[in-house]
Amino acid sequence: MIGLLNIHKPAGLTSRDVVNHVQRLARPDKVGHAGTLDPLATGVLVVGVGRATRLVPFIQQLHKTYRATFLLGRTSDTDDVEGRVIVLEHAPTVTRQQVLAALPRFVGRIEQVPPQFSAVKVQGERAYDLARAGLTADIKPRLVDVYRLELLTLEPPELSLEIECGSGTYVRSIGRDLGARLGTGAVMCGLVRTRIGPFRIEQALMLDEINRDSLAASLLPAACAVTDHPRCLVDSDQAAHLRHGRSIPFSGMPDSGGAVPLAVIGPQGELMALAAVRNGRLCPTLVLAPGNE
Question: Is residue 292 part of a domain?
């Protein structure tokens, strides 16, 4: 099997739990997910099956959209309600105007410090391992991209935002830093990922809908992962070379250099490879079609 699953991850399960469920159904094919969701979070989790797992790095780079809810006037060692929450005494009441005035500070390419309880590595150790041992990791700020940040509701102490961001952005950190800018604290109490690229929550399958009988029919084409890539079509003779990792003559466009790879579409409309154009030849850089192993 080769394809992708758009799954609505339920609360209380890790992303690994979801992969394990699919893995039991798909054996012996490989299974992997694109973009971790914490147990607190729900929503879109894209899972690759078979050779489509090779597309996970590309899916991870797609824009993501979240609906996040925070509790104002609180702090937490995890930056969400899963940790040790402290209610701040005499926390100020925050107004809608104050939130709207503060939001632009968190849009664009911004510096962000990941949470202490996160998977980032500090001197070879996961930050969450250090935090669980009672140690404070020296986590350096990172540049992340926030494309859109909108206020949905403000009903103190709850604040809800819609966030469109790039890979590596911690929504918990946005809430924490926004709370600090407002002169109070904020901890995340709910998170729904509503979109990863073309994968939307409205089309996501509930986990209990995916069983041994429905798995194959539930798979989306691997090409869904690279809808934003330029495409080229190849015939059956060209496909025979590409599926074995061999380059073919190609005059469709100039050398691609370090640009986005081409999505190579085979004669049956399937995504069979990603490729670069070098010296007038189409050179496969990642092959999905059988025949290269």
Answer: no
For residues 58 and 35, the answer to whether their CB atoms sit within 8 Å is no
Query: Looking at the domain assignment, is residue 162 inside a domain?
Result: yes
Residue range 222-258, pLDDT digits in tens: 999 999 999 999 999 999 999 999 999 988 777 766 5
pTM over 0.90: yes
Residues 103 and 208 in one domain: no
- Shared domain for 99 and 53, answered yes or no, is no
- Active-site choice (38, 79, 80, 177): 38
> 25, 211 in Cβ contact below 8 A?
yes
What does the block give as tokens for 138? Answer: 């020296």
Q: What is the predicted pLDDT for the residue at 292?
A: 43
State which residues form the domain around 171.
64-191
* CA-wise closest residue to 181 among 257, 45, 72: 72
The verdict on whether 213 is a catalytic residue reads: no
